[in-house]
Each structure stands twice: as structure tokens, then as C-alpha cells.
Design a protein that fits this description.
Chain lengths: ~350, ~350
């Protein structure tokens, strides 16, 4: 039987409808591959991509002899630019702001064909550190209100390049989806004097039915009102509203959990298509407004969204998702997969 | 240069970024086709689909001898059902409602392979009349707060069947996307004592740059803050907050405009993938709450959304869309296409 479920943070209602099939054949694992020959992200083609915003040299030499381990570059076709002046304009009933902002590419590896679940944990930690450092740097520009970091992998995820990369887009406005979560979290705090996400961590760790994996620093679970089949959220167990305050130890814990989640999804669903998105507090405004957060208002987290189903007219019109897979079933499946993967690894080590 | 634009109704900000390519090859027109042999919507297979909720007999006999012209049936795998009792429950911090509602399929033609732009206007009018009659009938169930009608055409639109059909989903809650539009429209009205959509109709008819087509009853334009390339909205020129009050004359005007829009999109983009969604007022609640609309609060309309681009992690995370095609360019292209189509038709008639 189907249920309607309300996300306690955003207030979004979701239809959980287990009778439906996921509508996808899970018997093949086809990589989405752009040609290596003229890939601008590959070692040797560095000149095509402009200057390095961040350059992490290779430590002991990369397998393919590349001089770098990770690079951050400006997007060649940026949707927003820092060089413009911030201008606001009304056109009749319409409002417009110049496209001020930043759009950067984090090239996560010199290797062209690596998928997230194949990354060593150390490399995932390096990527997460680059995310932090870019947010810290861009925070100096007070015009930027929100910095979004996301990762598209596989054609269905919206990726156009198969070389492993993530992206950063910084905007002078707070996007509507983030505003919804912020105000939901603030209302919850004002009502209960507790962080909604901290309560979420407690309830998921106690109920266990939607847990996927956890370690001392982080917990991963399929959210109660999952909009998408096999969606997984990763939250720090200790309250923190800004990602950029994350410590090296925490990054190492987060890398471990993110790698486990990526393995669980890749081995369960047999598709490479997945989005990873970071949700964190907006930048404070010099003059405090209703969207300037205080310490308690938000709790940063990562959402991992496999792209199995397509959005139909219903999702587009109403913002209400129809999800055919109950999160409790998804979490049980992912836990079983992780158990199976670790058993195979133990067997292999025994021989 | 790119711009950030705010939708005056929903408050959503959109990045208009003309530098990007639409990212799709427009040189083929491949239909998405499910096999005709075992199509449950085709004449002869009526017994597979359960009872008729609505049955419109064929007038002068359909081309293929079918006894009906249009049928409405219950969805075989409904995401919501009217037979259940409405129960509300809290589970720790979570809220749940039983999946009460309705999910119906409007089979729009006995013909298996018709696309919207190939429909005769009379048939489009028949579909629009069926939409109205179903909303009127379901409005008797006071548990249902919102009735959404949408149409998926082509695989990218989320369609699973190629036989032409639309769907109706009625829910006991008002979906978050609709809530956002309702409160935006109400705020506008409270501020200006005018309907936001009426102002929109006036401004678009005056500026003309985003107009696609219009007749005495309806106007079609690419919205100022289009989230998707070539998105078109169709609004009644006279204020009306509920679709179900539409008259037969208005339906005939709407069918004409909708057909023109469908032709313009199909001939311009050369892809069949498109969603058509109806946005109308929620059902009033017996006890008036903040989402019970009054006459002025909303203005029903139809959104036509071609599915060219894919949603990436950025759209998923932030609800902020990146649209590579400025609506002014899209509208100019669609107007040119319509001019070209009518010239070809005139030429053909001359010979």
C-alpha cells in the first residue's frame, strides 16, 4: 500500500508507492564514456582549460606519470562570472540580476575512466578537501550568497564529460530549494529548540531500518521521505552548519562513508548514473536578513541520488515526487550488498 | 552574457545562460514507440484495463472502426486510491498520511501512434473537456485537496506508453510546487490588489518579445524566467482561478492555441518529448485554511515543457534551473516556425 510522507526539513510531501516497478533494467553496467583522445581534463591537455585555480601535485607520481593529482579550473562556458558587477533591475513586473557568481570544475583524478566507487579513500578525501578549500576561498567575495557543489556521473545524471569531476556554482541569491530547507530547519528549531537534522540522526540511528552505514563521525541512511529510489543522505553526527569548518579527521571519516555508499549503490543498482550534492549554510550577509543562518539553523550534509527513474510531468508540475521504492527496502538491500562485498573481500584474502 | 531572473509568481530564480549549447542533436525525429500488439489502450483490449470511468463514443465512426473516441480508466498501478480511509500519523519526527487519492488515465484516441501536434483541434477540445469533467466529478470528494492533470509524450518526458494519453493524480495534500505558486500569487495580490497572472498576460502582450501565439481567449508565451529551453505557458486572457469553470467556447479557443504551440515545438525541435501540465486552484477546504484560495488568488494555466536537457545535480540540489536558451530567442524561433508552417500550407493549397 502506498503512503504520503512529509520530509520534516523541507516540508515536501512524497508519495511512496511500492507497487510500481522501478522501470529500469538492472542487468547491465554500461559506462558513459566521452572519448579520451580529446578530453580537456586528461593530462597533456592542460593548456586547453586555462589557468589552475587550485593545483595539487602528485605525491609519489600518478600511475600514468601525471604531474598533478587534482586540479580546479574555471568552467569554459561558465553560467556565472565573478568579473561582472552586481546589478539589480526591474523590468515591469520582472526582476533581474546580472549573472555574477563563480563556476568551477574540480578535476578529481588524472585518470579518465574512474568511477566514484573505484576511487581509493585517500582520493575521495582529497576531493572533499578541495571542496572545502574552494568554499573557504570564495567566501571572501561577499556578493556570493550560496555556494553549491555537486557531482554528475553518468549520462542520466546530466554529465557531459566522463572524466571524473565535480562542479562548484556560487550565486548572489539563495536558490529556492535551499531556502525551503533553511526555513523548514529554522521553524523546527524555533518550535523545539533543537536542530531538525540532529533529531534526524538520532531517530535514524535508533530505528535502524533506513540505515546504510556509519562510523564514528558520519551516518548514511535512506531518508524517510526519499524522493528518488535508493537516495542516500550522509550527515555528520556532531552538529555543524557549515561544511568549510570540517577537519582533516572528519574528512577522512566522511571519505570512508561516502566510498561505502558509492560501492553499495554501484553493486546494487549496476548503473553508474549518480549525483552527489553538498548542502550547506548560505554565506552570511553583511546586513542580517531572514536567510542569514545562525549556528543552530542548519546542519550540512551530502545527498547521493542514483538516477534510475525519469521525472514526468507530475514531478515537474507539482514538485511532488513519486518514488516506487520504499527507503526501508532500499536500505536493507544496500546493507545486504555491503555485507556481500565485505564477505567476498574476506574470502579473497583467505585464499 | 548570462542573467539571473526571478519568476514573479513562484519566486524561483533561474540562470539564463545563452552561451551554453542546448546539448542535443536536433537532426532526427525518433518516435518513442511501445508495441501496438499488446497495447492495453488500443481498441480490442478494453477488457484488460478495468471499468470505464468516462466513455465518449465515436461520433461518425473512428477511422479504425473503434466504438469509442476517448476513454478514462483507473490506473492499473495507482499511486493513490480513493477506496482508502484518510489516516494521519506521526512516527517520531515524521508525518505520514495514507495514500488516499485518485490516479486515472485519459486515453485520448483509439489510434496508437498519434502525437499531440497531429491531433485535429476537435480531438484536443475533446481531451480538454474530459479533463474538465473529471475534475468536476472528483471535486465531490472533499478529502482531495489538489487535482493535477499532466501529459507525458516521448520517453524523455517520463512516458512509459506511447499510445496518446494524459493522467490525473488527485492528492489529499497540496503539493509543494503548487503551494509555492499559490503563496507567491497571493502575496502579489495582497501587495498590489491585482492578479499576478493578469499582469503577466498584459505585460507579455505589450512587450511581444516572448509571445508565441494568441487568439481571442488565450495567449501563449515563453515565460521570462523559463526553467527549460522552449518552455511555453498558455493562459486564459480573462481571469479565472479554476480550470473546471471553462466554457465550451473557451475550450475551443484553448484547443486552437495548444495545437499551434504543439506544432511550433514539434517542427522547431524535431523531438517528440514534451510534458503538458495543467495548474489550477486547489479544492477549497471545508474549514478555510491558508491554502484555500479565493477568486483573485490564482489564475489557471497550462505549461508545455519540451524535454531537451537533463536535470543535473545542480537542479536537484538547489531547485535552481540552468537554462541555455533565452525565452526571447525561443519565442522568436517558434513564431518563425509557425509562419513557415502556415506559408507551406498556403502554398500547398494554391497548387
Amino acid at each position: 500500500m502506498s503512503d504520503l510522507r512529509r520530509d520534516p526539513i523541507s516540508g515536501n510531501w512524497v508519495v511512496i508507492s511500492p507497487e510500481e516497478e522501478a522501470g529500469v533494467k538492472l542487468d547491465r553496467f554500461v559506462r558513459f564514456e566521452t572519448p579520451r583522445e580529446d578530453c580537456p581534463f586528461c593530462p597533456g591537455n592542460e593548456r586547453e582549460t586555462g589557468h589552475n585555480i587550485l593545483f595539487i601535485p602528485s605525491e609519489n607520481g600518478e600511475a600514468d606519470g601525471s604531474s598533478w593529482s587534482l586540479r580546479v579550473i574555471p568552467n569554459r562556458l561558465p553560467v556565472l562570472r565573478t568579473e561582472r558587477a552586481l546589478e539589480r533591475e526591474g523590468i515591469g513586473m520582472f526582476d533581474r540580476i546580472t549573472g555574477v557568481g563563480a563556476h568551477e570544475i574540480i578535476i578529481e583524478s588524472p585518470r579518465h575512466d574512474l568511477l566514484l566507487h573505484e576511487f581509493p579513500e585517500r582520493r575521495i578525501a582529497r576531493v572533499l578537501t578541495a571542496w572545502r578549500d574552494r568554499v573557504l576561498d570564495l567566501s571572501k567575495d561577499t556578493r556570493l550568497r550560496y555556494i553549491s557543489i555537486f557531482r554528475n556521473q553518468g549520462r542520466r545524471s546530466g554529465a557531459r564529460m566522463s572524466h571524473p569531476h565535480s562542479q562548484l556554482i556560487a550565486t548572489p541569491v539563495i536558490p529556492v530549494g535551499i531556502r525551503g530547507e533553511l526555513s523548514g530547519a529554522r521553524e523546527y528549531f524555533e518550535y523545539k529548540e533543537r536542530c531538525a537534522f540532529c533529531d534526524l540522526v538520532d531517530q535514524e540511528r535508533e530505528e535502524k531500518v533506513r540505515l546504510v552505514t556509519q562510523n564514528r563521525g558520519f551516518v548514511a541512511f535512506c531518508p524517510f521521505a526519499s524522493r528518488n529510489p535508493f537516495e542516500v543522505w550522509i550527515l555528520p553526527r556532531v552538529h555543524s552548519h557549515r561544511y568549510e569548518t570540517v577537519s582533516a579527521d572528519e574528512i577522512s571519516d566522511l571519505a570512508e562513508v561516502l566510498k561505502q555508499v558509492a560501492i553499495a549503490l554501484a553493486e546494487s543498482l549496476l548503473i553508474p548514473d549518480v549525483n552527489v550534492v553538498l548542502k550547506t549554510s548560505p554565506r552570511p550577509k553583511p546586513r542580517r536578513d531572514q536567510w542569514t543562518t545562525i549556528e543552530e539553523d542548519f546542519h550540512w550534509h551530502i545527498e547521493v541520488i542514483p538516477r534510475i527513474t525519469r521525472f514526468s510531468g507530475y514531478e515537474l508540475a507539482t514538485g511532488m515526487f513519486v518514488n516506487p521504492t520504499p527507503p526501508e527496502s532500499a536500505a536493507a538491500y544496500l546493507r545486504d550488498t555491503l555485507f556481500e562485498v565485505s564477505r567476498r573481500r574476506d574470502d579473497a584474502q583467505d585464499q
